[in-house]
User: What shape does this take?
Amino acid sequence: MNRYFIEVAYKGARFSGFQVQENAHTVQAEVDRALSTLLRDTIVSTGSSRTDAGVNAYQNFLHFDTDLPLHPQFIYKINAILPDDVVLNGVYAVPPDANSRFAAVSRSYEYTLYTRKDPFMLDRGYFFPYKIDIDALQEAARIITTYSDFTTFSKRNTQVKTFLCNIMESYWTVEGQHITYNVRANRFLRGMVRGLVGTMLRVGRGKLTLDEFRAVIESKDCTRADFAVPPQGLFLMQVHYPEGLLSPIHFSR
Assistant: This one.
């Protein structure tokens, strides 16, 4: 049995999330449908990173197993089956025990605000036309890197064994009217990035002091976090794997 990692990107607006759910329209379900259609076999994939309803991804991965040969135009044909808001960008041969979820060493997200009305950003950012203290935001982002327990920023009814995350990067960038939060970690909890952004915005708006922000983190109480920022501003940017794990397979068009 051969195992393959596949790299996808998608616009999340029409989907109820990434992971297969009963009676819901999801990205993974569309990918499985396309794979099963082309291979004429039932394919059940495993996803790397679960994104919520409305969240976008420039890069996400799944893996699947098959003994069947891949068509010489595999990427082209899968993309012809997939809906317009999902694209297959790459296929990789991997060892048979490689897992797209557990082999990932880190994941990177961005959340973008735009401060001036822009119809082209409607489904790609959060319109936030309010005065923000960028220095306070930046310090809040730095504070996040000094913690490892993010219970506060995990939504309820989540089935995880630990709330510990290793935050490798956490910072804001400003480019014109766009203000973007950049974060990379070994793992993320359900709703975590939006919870971090929403709570940091309270700091940037002067509604929380930096000491109070620390207290929110240390409380391990999700009712003290602000998860209210909308999903369309959030993008999964990259899933990072150990060097040498992925062997690209090249197909003709």
User: Anything to note?
Assistant: The beta strands are 2-10, 46-47, 56-66, 86-94, 106-114, 126-127, 167-175, 178-185, 234-240, 247-248. DSSP finds five helices and ten strands in the chain.
